[in-house]
Structures are given as C-alpha cells and as structure tokens.
Amino acid sequence: MERQQRLLLSLFAMGAFAMLLGALGDREYSYYTLLRWIVFFAAVLVGILGFRWRHVWAVGVFAFVAILFNPVAPVKLSESLWFFIDIGAAVLFLLAAVFVAPPGAVARLLSKLKQHRVWVGLAVGGTICLTVAALVIVLLQKTDISFLINKSSPYLHLARSTLTAYDTTNEEFDKAFPLLKDMGISLGRVPNSMDMLPDQEGGEVRLTPQQRVDYQQFTYSTVRRGLTKIVAKPDFQALTDERKKLVVERAMTALKDDAHAQFRGYLRAQGVTPPASEPVGAGGR
Length: 285
Fold this sequence. Notes:
Blueprint: H1 2-22, H2 29-52, H3 56-68, H4 79-99, H5 105-115, H6 117-143, H7 155-176, H8 178-182, E1 193-195, E2 204-206, H9 209-231, H10 234-237, H11 241-269
Antiparallel strand pairs: 1-2
Helix pairs in contact: 1-2, 1-4, 2-3, 7-9, 9-11
C-alpha cells in the first residue's frame, strides 16, 4: 500500500514540478488556471502523506503552497513575484518526490547515495548547471534582449521597466479607484502581442519590452481618464454596488478596446509590420 502511495505522490509532485517550470514562460490564462488546480491537489497530497509518514516540515510547507495556489480564491500577486514563487515551489515538489517517503525509506536512499557519492555529485552538479541555464534562457525570453545590439539602449533600465510596469500601473489604478478595488476590479495587464491585421490571419507581432511598457502605460492613462468621468457622475453614484460594477466592467472593456486600437495605429506609424513567423499568444496570469 505504501509503495502505491509513494508512486502516486511522485507522479503528482513531478507533474506539479513540470507545470511550474512551464509557467516560467508566457502562457495563456487557461494554463495558469490548470496550474493552480494541479499544484493545489499535489500540495494537499504531499501534506497528507507527509503527516502520515511523520514529515512535519512537509505538512506546514505544502499547506502554505496549497493556500498560495488554491484555485477557489486565487491569490493576486505581481508577475515578477510569481516568477520566483514558481521556481521555489518547483524545487519543493522536487524535494518532496525524493524525501517524502515512508519511515526507513529515506535512510535507505541516503545510504545508497553515500555509496555512489561521486556519481551523485556529478549528477547534482549537472542538474544545477542545466537548471541555471534554463532559467537564464527563460529570463532572456521574458526580457527580450535583442535590443542589446543597439549599444545605446539602456539595458538595465529597460529590463527593470518591463518587470515593474504592470505592478506600478495596477497600484496607481487601485489608489485612484479604491471603490473599484473593493469590488475586485483591477486594471490587469496588456498582452505580449499586438494584432496588426485584425481582419486577417497571421497579423500578430510580439511586442518588445519597451513597447509592452508603453502599451501598459497608455492603457492605464486611457482607462483612468474614461473612468474618472464615469464615476464622477451623480447618476453613477446613485447606483447599487452591483450595478456600478457592471457599468465599470463594460466601460473598461470599451476603453481597453479603444486603447488597443490607438496603440495599434501608433505601432503602424512606427513601421511595425507582422513577421512571417507563427503568431504569439497573449498570455497572462
């Protein structure tokens, strides 16, 4: 029975590990929804079996992971913070797959590892090197360093702006509209791509980090101007909270569409054209 439970734990833990590593890139929102369910159930399973097998550390750690990734009441954090949380959670599930086991199993495993310490050291070292290399590749993909070819590009400023633009504009939006924050309405984030040919297929282009920053800030300005006028009207103030939320959500959809169209026109004026490559998804968390 314990052998089957250990196998089940390993399958769930490695599944969560793979999903968390996959989340380091830009994914569709549906991917992150599925990620929450898989990580949640995997964390609950590790916690239950950890308690049964007297691994106290696993109970507390994975209870926290389950709360953090729970799909019922999603925890809202910044994109940059989620990046490091995903890495940390992936490491925890990898450790759980190895060390959360019935009493005696860990001791036997460690005894075997000591007998082959040289090969184990090489394997661990190689794994660490490959993991670091993979993380570097992901970071380069997220920050798009093609602009380094131009030596005049302010690399550090651009990378920092790309990582913080979403957080900054959302924080400013929440401060400007505290009532909307209480309703669970936030500005959100712009997509990673822009459809330059709305009426045709294959018209999407991947935005550079600076273009994403400009797009996010432009969307924030457009939405804030429009909502400021709406919430200041006496008719709006007289509505119920439920009705206010409906009005704001509809207005935000229209304002974001308007910002999208205007920014597409700006990109066209800058000479941005669709590439011959496969379109890139919008992503989002």
